[in-house]
């Protein structure tokens, strides 16, 4: 593919926070609070695509609803999505450009007794190889890369025929600026200032276009909405003004 | 369930439950029934806990709790030993020593289960009285049948280490149980876990003691539970199933000031029977106390937190209330249903079931409900445990007023039935 989409300043910034990934009340607390809603969404959509029961627990299916599926988590950070998805049975490969995040992710997974294939690297190198995945995840990463179009085409190429891609990011709207930048970074101080650059947020059309170009079909767009009353997040199929998720599929026989 | 062989390797489970009393055993059954692996540990063997002389109490299983017990597969076993409560009568009584009869106020509060629910939600009873012994037998039987439950009892615990990544429970024989979460169901004493987490407990003793025994009476109780507010404390008559000879029985919870209770407990059988009958009254014909007299001090306590790193408190370890409204176990059951639900939800998402967010959800869900009932039962006891004339008159008027207003009566009744509030799925009778 050539070129790189890595933004070195971003990699350096997340690397510095590597030992904070798993502190549920620390710097990444907002991501931990977001996790149940986004993992639930991923679990349900993947289970639906591959004909699994999303709610099956160990008792019924010893290896979980995602058993046997190869899943790539791009920009995995400390493994906040990789670990739960591995517990649900997926064979997870976690990729991140920050070596210190990968070291933290490896250490944590080992202590939790989880086998996850964590790798330091860039997506272009992986896309140049022959490995392909049933599920490719690009969660809260597109808004941090240098060239989203290039990045998304590489993501799409890593999906097996019949497989799927799920991406999540922030919409470039005035509401997103108010909530994600002013609200989360300045008023509530949920995340450090400078975590997000509003200009790099993507409108759904900008997220979808490179994926379509790369041969994927857009299956669904859904919003992730914060509820100040419960302090939790939920999926809202209509409100995609701030955080949203996109599901795309690749034609082919579903395993 | 597996019985422990002589040398067993380290055990892995999702959850370790310490204490297998009514609360701990119910939690273990609820979790293992829903696909969560559990190791339950107690220092006493099940045979000791189900012995006739171990626990003479009965439990008032509220309607919501009964739905939960059905859902986790234990109700059917205890149902033959459960007597439905069809009606609750509350009265304000005064003891007149010279005549040795309980002069009960004519003003009554009367709850009838037929008023509580409408449509398909309508309950066949307000609740059920079940002997604790039969509840324990049903719970242990179910536990033994669940492949995801391991019971280690009797077993001692050398130490519990709650780390960032998991809990290691070292048993007295050196074996180690590794889990993501440890639950203390150690009762109001709290055991070592609550202390190790430096969770403080606030509360007070009521200076009262509950004398618990069984009454045999001439006439059937017709499913009526009675709560008489006597000056020394409430005297509750709870309908039980007939004994094996067909004799009519009720379970008695007789609260009395500690000094008086101590004296009453020391009485010979004849004197005890006379004191007893004076309080019970003659509405069910000839009455006599039978079997052993048990006694339990009454106290109220509330833990400042219900959770700590990889630790959750349930039941009396978190909050012990006055047994005045028969709600202690039912509150504990709501803890169980809420904790089981957040643990199952987390496990279905592959999340860390002992993580801070999972536990925070449990705590915030339960705290409001528990504090409300704690305050209500405490106020009720304070209001009724005295014999000051103006208060008595007010009480009588209050009871009569509640009786006059059907919506108010339904409100109190639905609370007693445990079907109010942000109910966990199990209490609503839904699967996890």
Which bin fits the share of residues in helices of chain A? 25-40%
Topology-level CATH name of the largest domain in chain B:
FAD/NAD(P)-binding domain
**Could you give the count of β-strands of chain B?**
21
> Structural class, from helix and strand content of chain B?
alpha/beta
Strand-and-helix sequence of chain A, N→C? Answer: HHEHEHEHEHEHHEEE
Radius of gyration of chain A: 17 Å
Shape of chain B: globular
Say which CATH homologous superfamily of the largest domain in chain B is assigned. Answer: FAD/NAD(P)-binding domain
**N-to-C terminal Cα separation of chain A, in Å?**
27 Å
At the fourth level of CATH, the homologous superfamily of chain A is: Vaccinia Virus protein VP39
Q: CATH class of chain A, please?
A: Alpha Beta
What oligomeric state is this? heterodimer
Q: How widely separated are the two ends of chain B?
A: 21 Å
Total domain count of chain B: 2
Mean pLDDT of chain A: 89
- CATH A-level architecture of chain A: 3-Layer(aba) Sandwich
Helix content of chain B: 25-40%
Describe this structure in words.
- The complex is a heterodimer of chains A (255) and B (432).
- Chain A has helices at residues 8-16, 29-49, 82-87, 99-111, 123-128, 148-157, 174-187, 204-213; strands spanning 70-74, 91-96, 117-120, 133-139, 159-170, 216-227, 232-236, 243-250.
- Chain A has 255 residues and is an alpha/beta fold.
- Chain A has a single domain, classed as 3-Layer(aba) Sandwich (Rossmann fold).
- Chain A has an 8-stranded mixed β-sheet.
- Chain A is globular.
- Chain B has 432 residues and is an alpha/beta fold.
- Chain B has 2 domains: 11-81 and 125-203 and 301-385, 3-Layer(bba) Sandwich (FAD/NAD(P)-binding domain); 85-122 and 207-299, D-Amino Acid Oxidase, subunit A, domain 2 (D-Amino Acid Oxidase, Chain A, domain 2, 2-Layer Sandwich), CATH 3.30.9.10.
- Chain B has helices at residues 22-33, 46-49, 63-71, 75-78, 132-145, 191-196, 258-265, 269-280, 328-348, 356-384, 389-404, 406-416; strands at 11-12, 15-18, 38-41, 58-62, 82-85, 87-96, 101-112, 127-131, 149-152, 157-162, 167-171, 176-179, 181-184, 201-217, 224-230, 233-239, 248-257, 287-303, 307-308, 311-313, 319-320.
- In chain B, strands 7-6-15-16-17-14-18-21 form an 8-stranded mixed β-sheet. A 6-stranded mixed β-sheet of chain B has the order 9-3-2-13-20-19. A 4-stranded mixed β-sheet of chain B has the order 1-12-11-10, with no helix packed on it.
- In chain B, a hairpin with a 4-residue loop joins strand 11 (167-171) and strand 12 (176-179).
- In chain B, helix 9 packs antiparallel against helix 10.
- The longest helix of chain B has 29 residues, at 356-384.
- The model of chain B is unreliable at 96-107 (pLDDT under 50).
- The chains are: A alpha/beta (255), B alpha/beta (432).
- At the A-B interface, helix 2 and helix 3 of A face helix 9 of B.
